[in-house]
From TrEMBL, chain A:
This is Oxidase aa(3) subunit 3. Signal peptide: none annotated. The chain crosses the membrane at residues 27-48, 60-80, 101-123, 135-160, 181-199. Residues 1-200 form the Heme-copper oxidase subunit III family profile domain. The lineage of its organism: Bacteria, Bacillati, Cyanobacteriota, Cyanophyceae, Synechococcales.
Automatic annotation (TrEMBL), chain B:
The gene is ctaD. Residues 14-528 form the Cytochrome oxidase subunit I profile domain. Keywords: Cell membrane, Copper, Electron transport, Heme, Iron, Membrane, Metal-binding, Respiratory chain, Translocase, Transmembrane, Transmembrane helix, Transport. GO terms for molecular function: cytochrome-c oxidase activity; heme binding; metal ion binding. It is an enzyme of class 7 (translocase). InterPro entries: Cyt_c_oxase-like_su1_dom, Cyt_c_oxase-like_su1_sf, Cyt_C_Oxase_1, Cyt_c_Oxase_su1_BS, Cyt_c_oxidase_su1_bac. Gene3D superfamilies: Cytochrome c oxidase-like, subunit I domain. Cytochrome c oxidase is the component of the respiratory chain that catalyzes the reduction of oxygen to water. Subunits 1-3 form the functional core of the enzyme complex. CO I is the catalytic subunit of the enzyme. Electrons originating in cytochrome c are transferred via the copper A center of subunit 2 and heme A of subunit 1 to the bimetallic center formed by heme A3 and copper B. The keyword Acyltransferase does not apply. GO terms for biological process: aerobic respiration; electron transport coupled proton transport; respiratory electron transport chain. Its main location: membrane. This is Cytochrome c oxidase subunit 1. Its EC number is 7.1.1.9. It comes from Prochlorococcus marinus CUG1433.
Length: 200, 541
């Protein structure tokens, strides 16, 4: 605001009317992610209860194939690292390098989703086949939705960093940091999901 | 990094309509949003109240002669849902929280004004959608708990609309919760310590923690339920291998904390009102803070006391009985602190004070029946009878709604700059108090003698007591009339209130009534002790 008009008088008025304070948008985001995490916690709790209390009849037990989800786990872990790289680069004002890392992260996210769809099409069970199948699709699908949103957000900030004098600079890291936190969160959930759903 | 809040950007005065019109427009001012919550909530309260009257008319006679049974179920479901999700929760959190919290932390607005506006504007459309579902294809019929398999097997479009509406309202309440936490933790004036905050801030902090931790679980549950309805999955459908008890666990993991989401803010509000009208500092500030946090923690782990009759194993029954009984400790502390605050004070008998005292009386009664219900053998006897109905109405109506009215009498001068008329206010209190107790006290007897809840027809032996109850409900319905007349007359030509008619010490009274857009003309005043009344009395003022 002060950049709009540098006359002493206006500066004084503005500083009286405006309150400067610490940036707490990140704090808000963390609170939101805790809430989001609780949604997953509810789903996990339901799944584990079903597993313990409602054993499936013999013929209805499916062995899940491990290769694709393992690959997906690795993809997501790598993408967390590449995202981190993007942040580092931006901090050093290397915008185009940062942008490359962002695109690469989004690319990994898209591969993850394609792999997941591929897995869906090759599974021997459908959504309504039995309780396990329903919970499986609900959990992985809800997570996939998060990956989709995350990928879209990465593409948006990558695009923003293209615009000269755009909103993503080393002075304004917030969009990148926010999406990065979200992405790490989604990765973390996947790891838990992978352990509970595929390994247990 | 620091960012600055630009009032020109957030609340562009020249673009906002002036006077009353601004309450009907999209505004980012926390005070306007607070009043919008209140008015919107009150309109839904009138709808919910009309439905309640319909229920009591039906129950005045043993047969279902006033409305058909499925209509009765729809009316009952709409009533419960509206009262909880569209009246108590939005008003006691959204309305008073938005109005007061920025004042209490010395800020000019909430932490995220835009998110705040979004949270409010989710409510009217989802509420209207819920009500309109009655006229489309019949509203949901499965009660406010939407237990499957009933909610899966009853006509589905109403149930789907119900789920959608509750999801949106849950989202609104999560956004609100995030905003309150950020405002209270991060937006405090430099130098304002947490332990110096007015008690309502603590109550809202605790409530918002509960909202953030438990509402998402309800959202997830309802999404699964909607899959069961739309996509024919079997999460909660026993026919397809699902488990209805899992639904109950997930539902009550939200809905037990939800009772504290309704009543903790009321605890906070009463803690603001009592010291002012008794001219004494709040007794035991620190214990009040710790009891709030104790209630938050315990509130999260007692949900299964709603499921003692759902086939819970003995160890679970034991654990949840003990945990539930423990909640009586922090609640009891709060009760004794309120009484100690009143003790020896210069009590002014006005409408705000009367409603607060009514709250304390009703709440003790509701709390005691709650402890009784937590005992498994007793609960098995009265579960799903009118005893439970009586218990929770003593809490939600006798507790929270009494405090909503008390708060309206207390803060009306601040919001409008006019006083409410005391004579009408006291009349309002008397009718409400008598009507309420006449309506719900007899229901304990009905429950103990075995009258089931949620049915339109009952054994003729219960008719007389039901008629007393219906008479009470009639009085409660009529009690809104003096209130509405009072508000109308006072807004038009009430006595001018001045900035601080009650000589209160909390910061909202240090600005003009009604407050200016940015809350304070100059710098925000720093209030060291929100409850420094003791000095005044000892100094013989
Ligand atoms: C703080 C405010 C409270 C509210 C708003 C509240 C509300 C409710 C509601 C709505 C129900 C009905 C559940 C249903 O539809 O089946 C209920 C039942 C119950 N409440 Fe409360 N309650 C509160 C406090 C307490 C306290 C303090 C206790 C115990 C110390 C308690 C113990 C119970 C128990 C054990 C039941 C289950 C009764 C049954 O379903 O058989 N409640 N409460
Ligand atoms: Cu409970």
């Amino acid at each position: 605001m002060t950049t709009l008009d540098s006359s002493k008088e206006i500066q004084k008025n503005n500083s009286e009317a405006n309150e400067t304070h610490e940036d707490f948008r990140m704090f808000g985001l963390i609170t939101f992610l805790i809430a989001d995490g609780m949604t997953f916690a509810g789903f996990f709790a339901a799944y584990l209860t079903y597993k313990a209390v409602n054993p499936l009849p013999d013929g209805a037990i499916y062995e899940l194939e491990l290769p694709i989800p393992t690959l997906n786990t690795i993809l997501l872990l790598i993408s967390s690292a590449t995202f981190h790289k993007a942040g580092k680069a931006l901090l050093k004002d290397k915008n185009s390098e940062s942008q490359k890392w962002l695109f690469f992260t989004a690319f990994l996210g898209i591969i993850f989703l394609i792999c997941q769809l591929f897995e869906y099409f090759h599974l021997p069970f459908g959504l309504t086949d039995n309780l396990f199948a329903s919970t499986f699709y609900a959990l992985t699908g809800f997570h996939g939705l998060h990956v989709t949103l995350g990928t879209l957000m990465i593409l948006i900030i990558a695009w923003q960093s293209r615009i000269k004098g755009g909103r993503l600079t080393s002075q304004n890291m917030f969009p990148l940091e926010a999406v990065e936190l979200y992405w790490h969160f989604v990765d973390g959930i996947w790891v838990i999901l992978f352990i509970i759903l595929y390994l247990l | 990094m620091t960012i600055s809040i630009d009032p020109q950007k957030t609340n562009n005065e020249s673009l906002q309509p002036k006077g009353w019109l601004r309450y009907f427009s999209f505004s980012l001012d926390h005070k306007v949003i607070g009043i919008q919550y209140l008015v919107c909530g009150f309109l839904f309260y009138l709808i919910g109240g009309t439905l309640a009257s319909a229920i009591r008319i039906e129950l005045a006679s043993p047969m279902s002669d006033f409305m058909p049974r499925d209509v009765y179920n729809q009316v009952l479901t709409l009533h419960g849902t509206i009262m909880i999700f569209l009246w108590i929760v939005p008003v006691v959190n959204g309305a008073f929280g938005n109005y007061l919290i920025p004042f209490y932390v010395g800020a000019r607005d909430m932490a995220f004004p835009r998110l705040n506006a979004v949270a409010f504007w989710l409510i009217p459309p989802s509420g209207l959608m819920l009500v309109a579902s009655y006229f489309v294809d019949g509203a949901a019929q499965a009660g406010w708990t939407a237990y499957p398999p009933l909610s899966i097997t009853t006509p589905q479009s109403g149930q789907i609309i119900w789920i959608l509406s509750v999801l949106l309202l849950g989202g609104s309440s999560i956004f609100g919760g995030i905003n309150f936490i950020a405002t209270i933790i991060k937006l405090r004036r430099p130098g304002l310590k947490l332990m110096k905050l007015p008690m309502y801030c603590w109550a809202m902090l605790g409530t918002s923690l509960l909202v953030v931790l438990s509402t998402p679980v309800l959202a997830g549950t309802l999404i699964l339920l909607s899959f069961d309805i739309i996509a024919n999955t079997g999460f909660f459908n026993p026919v397809l291998g699902g488990n209805v008890v899992v639904y109950q666990h997930l539902f009550w993991f939200y809905s037990h904390p939800a009772v504290y989401i309704m009543v903790l803010p009321a605890f906070g509000l009463v803690s603001e009102i009592l010291p002012v009208h008794a001219r004494k500092p709040l007794f035991g500030y620190t214990t009040m803070v710790f009891s709030i946090m104790g209630i938050v923690v315990l509130g999260l782990v007692v949900w299964a006391h709603h499921m003692f009759t759902s086939g819970t194993p003995p160890w679970m029954r034991l654990f949840f009985t003990i945990a539930t009984a423990f909640i009586a400790v922090p609640t009891g502390i709060k009760f004794f602190n309120w009484v100690a605050t009143l003790w020896g004070g210069k009590i002014s008998i006005n409408s705000a004070m009367l409603f607060s005292c009514g709250f304390i009386i009703n709440f003790v009664f509701g709390g005691i029946t709650g402890v009784a219900l937590a005992q498994v053998p007793f609960d098995i006897h009265v579960h799903d009878t009118y005893f439970v109905v009586a218990h929770f109405h003593y809490i939600v109506y006798g507790g929270t709604v009494f405090i909503i009215f008390s708060s309206i009498y207390h803060w009306f001068p601040k919001v409008t700059g006019k006083m409410l008329k005391e004579k009408l206010g006291i009349l309002h209190f008397i009718i409400t108090f008598i009507g309420f107790n006449l309506c719900f006290a007899p229901q304990h007897w009905l429950g103990l003698n075995g009258m089931p809840r949620r049915v339109a027809e009952y054994d003729p032996q219960f008719q007389f007591v039901n008629q007393i109850s219906s008479l009470g409900a009639l009085l409660m319905a009529m009690s809104t009339i003096p209130f509405l007349i009072n508000v109308y007359l006072s807004v038009r030509n009430g006595k001018d209130a001045g900035d601080n008619p009650w000589n209160a010490l909390t910061p909202e009274w240090l600005t003009s009534s009604p407050p200016p857009v940015e809350n304070w003309e100059g710098e925000a005043p720093l209030v060291e002790e929100p409850y420094g009344y003791g000095k005044e009395i000892t100094e013989g003022k």
